[in-house]
Amino acid sequence: MSTSSSIFDITKNVVVSAPAGSGKTEKLARRYIALLSAGVSPERILAITFTEKAAAEMKERILRILKAEKPELYRAIKEKIFLMRISTIHSFCLSLLKRFAFELELDPNFEIVDPKDSGLIDSVLSSSFTGIIEVPEKKKDANLEVLRENLVKLSSKYGWGKLKEIVEKFFLLRPATLVGRPELLNVSNFKKSRFAAIAALKKDTYFSENYRELINEESPEAIVYIIDSLKELLLTTGGTPRKQIAKGSGIKISKEEYAAVNEQIFTLYNEAKRHIFNEELLMFYGIFIHSNNEYTRVKKELNVLDFNDLEYITYELLNSHAEVDNILYAFDEQTDHIFVDEFQDTNFLQWAIINKLTEEWRAGLGSKRDNGIIPTLFIVGDEKQSIFGFRNANVEVFDTAIAEMQKWYGSGFIYEQVSENYRSGINIVEFVNNVFSRIMTRGQFEPKWRTQYKSFNPIRKIPGNVENIEIQKGTEENQKEAKKVAERINELVGKESISIKENGNKETPAKIKKGDIAVLLRKRTHLADFEEAFTAAKIDYVVVNGLGFYQQPEIIILRSLLFTLLEPSDDYNLYLLLKSRLFSLKEEEIIDLVSKEGLTLYDKIGENNKLAIITEHAGMLNTKPLNQILESFMENVGGWKVFWEPQRAANIKKFIEIVQEFESKGSSLQMIRAYFEERVDTDEEPKANLSTEDTDAVKIMTVHTAKGLEFPVVFFVRMGEEVRRDRDFVRINESKEKTGILYCPDKEIREDVFEFKELKLKEEEEEKRIFYVAVTRARDRLILSGVRDEKNKGFWKYL
């Protein structure tokens, strides 16, 4: 363990484990400033983080400290601010690929696309499947014939839609599915299970006569087919082996022997399915690789890459490209120091990239040492805040980096665990220490994905407050919780106090404002309950990075307006528009319009002064851009007054901007309509972003969105909610040594496979870290809320 000042020794390579509220960004900024003070030019320093926001904050913190403490250096650096290389890992990879585009046979003007949003993967899969099935005779070869047979076999079992969905999973898990290889389930017991089942069946004439096909069959597919046809006889409705002998069956063996026979058949059944799943994994993998080759070809034609390409191609460039030595030399000539922030959010592929970039430094190669330059690697993170497993972040990388850097640099390496907490009040820190010292433990021989907690020391001398809101289980429990939270917010605002810093570090009391409060959710499932409760309680709120953009009432209305303008005969969308808050027509008024003879509903509204605004704006289609028509309509119909709330107004502006973007690309009106039709049921599009810095409104967000932030008052809600796991049957199993692709569609078998069981345990460990991130956002007040009973489900079980 080092002293705090030693991490600013610019000759040392450092890993800092900096927990929540410990001033991580400050430490990173001061190490950066130590380099600048020693005369290192900013363009010689590469700083990598994992969000654009974090990169901007790092740059802002460096400049702020310089301005206050080193004004001369500040003025010098401000002139070189454009030379500061502070960016996300993806931005760094992008710049590297553009720089070496010629070596990669890329056009340096390539663009980055979202393959899901553009429909590129879906299009490639369709054309790839068609190409496999309809191979011209002269182009046929053995590999394509195998692919065709596999495609036909899988489609007959799963159907084309499901088959495409599974292959798409492989695409969305890139680059791991490109770096990794299929990891097969253990089937070493198949023959043993088959012989045991045959021996058991031969014990009774009933089985030997009625199960003859099963006794004689060797093929796993046929065995599964036969047992499936006998399921009602062999298995209970719950899917477990029967133990009771049916009356009149003619079975002479005892009940215990009968249960043992069924158990043997059940074991054989699962072993045979493992065999089948292994074959399917290899088939899916082969189809994925073939389709990915087609995807690569199409991207090259379009001169595009996607985000997953950036890391993978960078990794390949640095490890296996013919010009790798020249590429590393060129990087080395420009870079003397590397910073990596939020290191807990990395994976082994990203660590391999960083490893390769520093390889020559460790070997003492190049001209740096001769010129008296000691290159360094400085890493900052907090294992306890590793909560992005769904983005392939791997908490094990942190310990791996510490061990490898210790080995590489020896006495030139420092590892520091920070224990000071500058954020939370004393009672909040004591609560966190008490809970997590119990639930975050790791024995000497336990795996590195388990998290080890080290207690905080509170620096702020204010007491802080922790309280619970417990809701009894029952009807409308979620709505009751939301209402209780709203009531508690109204009790706090303007009445209770928090401590704020004024005149340096002195803390003074101030009344709580709505803008001081954050409501954190584990997931957005019940977000609507809180929105409704807050609206009813007249609490201003903002949903930060909320999803479900296309399901928002104002967007549904805008979509109906758009469809009506583009297709006047679309009575359904016109009906929705007339019923909406923009016109608020009653059912009987619409019926009166419809009952008039001789005209379509659209023609009839033109005769109504109040509704003629619709036909007037439809008439502008040939003379004005669609986005301007929508803006004019909202202005003239009073739409901005109807949807006055900041979030809803921002959503409307976002919708109009999407339309404008399509028009700027030359998209036809039909293409624009088709785009919005496809997104009627999607809930993944984020709502419009609002600046919340100066907004006096309660902020609602997920724990993942809140990471890196702090709030005077934090409500962590839905404490009693269990998180469903083990839903994905295509998974990545990444370790330092290898990356495996797992596949098992059968939930019961997954529960018996070590690798899947370990993934489930890793997810449970991540839930602890999510709870840690949630409660450590609070400065003055932490309020835990949720349905609680004697079972202590969800996060309550940690208390």
Number of helices: 34
Rough outline: globular
- The percentage of residues in β strands lies in 5-15%
Unreliable spans: none
* Fraction of residues in H or I helices: 40-55%
Largest sheet: 6 strands, parallel
Q: Spatial order of the strands in the main sheet?
A: 3-2-7-8-1-9
* Rg, Cα atoms, Å: 31 Å
Terminal CA distance reads 31 Å
Task: Predict the CATH topology of the largest domain.
Answer: Rossmann fold
The first-level CATH class name of the largest domain: Alpha Beta
Count of structural domains: 4
Using DSSP, what is the number of strands? 21
Per CATH, the superfamily of the largest domain is P-loop containing nucleotide triphosphate hydrolases
Mean pLDDT: 86
Helix- and strand-based class?
alpha/beta
Concise description?
The chain is of the alpha/beta class and 799 residues long.
In words, what does this structure look like?
The chain is of the alpha/beta class. The protein folds into four domains: 4-100 and 309-418, Rossmann fold (3-Layer(aba) Sandwich), CATH 3.40.50; 132-302, no CATH class; 457-545 and 691-798, Rossmann fold (3-Layer(aba) Sandwich), CATH 3.40.50.300; 549-678, PCRA, domain 4. It is 50% helix and 12% strand. The chain contains 34 helices and 21 strands. Helix 1 crosses helix 2, helix 23 (553-566) packs across helix 24 and helix 23 (553-566) packs across helix 27. It is globular.
What layout of secondary structure does this protein have?
Blueprint: E1 13-17, H1 24-37, E2 45-49, H2 52-69, H3 71-78, E3 85-88, H4 89-99, E4 111-113, H5 115-118, H6 120-133, H7 142-172, H8 176-179, E5 181-182, H9 190-201, H10 205-210, H11 212-216, H12 220-229, H13 231-234, H14 255-302, E6 304-306, H15 307-320, H16 324-334, E7 337-340, H17 348-357, H18 359-363, E8 376-381, H19 396-409, E9 413-417, E10 420-421, H20 426-439, E11 457-458, E12 465-471, H21 477-492, E13 497-501, E14 507-511, E15 517-521, H22 527-536, E16 541-543, H23 553-566, H24 571-579, H25 587-595, H26 601-605, H27 612-618, H28 626-637, H29 639-642, H30 646-664, H31 669-678, E17 698-702, H32 703-706, E18 711-716, E19 730-734, E20 739-743, H33 747-750, H34 754-775, E21 778-787
Parallel strand pairs: 1-8, 1-9, 2-3, 2-7, 4-6, 5-20, 7-8, 10-11, 12-21, 15-17, 15-18, 16-17, 18-21
Antiparallel strand pairs: 13-14, 19-20
Helix pairs in contact: 1-2, 2-3, 4-15, 6-7, 6-14, 7-14, 9-14, 12-14, 15-16, 15-17, 21-22, 23-24, 23-27, 23-31, 27-28, 28-30
